[in-house]
Amino acid sequence: MIPASLHAAAKVNLFLHITGRRNDGYHTLESVVVFTAFGDRITIDHAAADEINITGPFAKILRDDGDTNICASCLDGFRQAGGTFEPLRIMIEKNIPVGAGLGGGSADAAALLRYLNQHTLSPLSPDALHQVALRLGADVPACLHMTPARMGGVGDIVSPLVVNNTGPILLANPGTKLATGDVFKSLTGADVTRKQQNTVDAIDGASPRQLTRYGNDLQAPACRLMPEIADLLTTLAAQDGADAVGMTGSGATCFAIYSSQNACKTAASELLAKNIWAVATKIM
Q1: Are residues 35 and 104 located together in one domain of the fold?
Q2: Catalytic residue among 11, 108, 191, 217
Q3: Are 99 and 188 in the same domain?
Q4: Active site residue 182
Q5: Are strands 51-55 and 88-93 parallel, antiparallel or unpaired?
């Protein structure tokens, strides 16, 4: 199975509600995530020693970051948990914007972790694999399956979900990285009170348009930190054919749900002409 090419799908939170805060400071949430045909591409090959190379339009941001790449942590975590694998050369084509709420790093780690466990001679149990994923990041467990899911807890509770009438989705980003920690620090009680009184119940079988309209509690604090997000949401809502618009994760990427792929592509072209990063894709 080597060389291999993996799709690391961009994650979109169709809605996100903050439900509480634990004693350790972490917020609990309720969210529905879906995954898109757009994402990073990971190529794996044999190597004398583990090696990670990054290419693509957002490679420089990661290289300048200086932090350990999450795929290196994934290899280490998998082996420490009892999985075995020979040294690998991993090439990451970074198409997903960094710090954008699309779970790019989580998607990369999940795709690699999934591949490792499928092709090792000593696979981890589902529970052990979940624990490795969770240690890598809150979004990694949901990204492991790359199918619509309901997230709870701090992201560690993941259950499959039926989302009907999936189709075109437009992703757009104002071009500025937004730190998740900063958004949570700016979160106030006023941002979440209304949603706590309007708990989402019957969501299984809903459409992306219906789920998006439940809203994102992190949108208001993100817009306060970065007004460009509010401007982008207004622009998306005014595009022909947009059925619903929202912000994914803690931002700064926004999205619009479409019924027509042609209308979605046209809207993306109009944004690109204004030097706004945009991709017309579809929900898997």
Answers
A1: yes
A2: 11
A3: no
A4: no
A5: parallel
pTM exceeds 0.70, yes or no: yes
Do 271 and 265 touch, CB atoms closer than 8 A? Answer: no
Last residue of a domain, one of 160, 181, 209: 160
117 and 258 share one domain: no
- Assess whether 139 carries a catalytic annotation: yes
User: What are 122-175's pLDDT values in tens digits?
Assistant: 999 999 999 999 999 989 999 999 999 999 998 889 999 999 999 999 999 999
> Residue 27: CB partners within 8 Å, gap ≥ 6?
18, 20, 21, 154, 184, 187
Q: Which residues pair with 90 in a beta bridge?
A: 44, 52
∠ CA 215-61-155, rounded to 5°: 35
Provide the number of structural domains found in the chain.
2
Segment 241-257, tens digit of pLDDT: 999 999 999 999 999 99
| CATH at 249 | 3.30.70.890
Domain of 223 in residue numbering reads as: 168-282
Single out the catalytic residue among 40, 139, 217, 243: 139
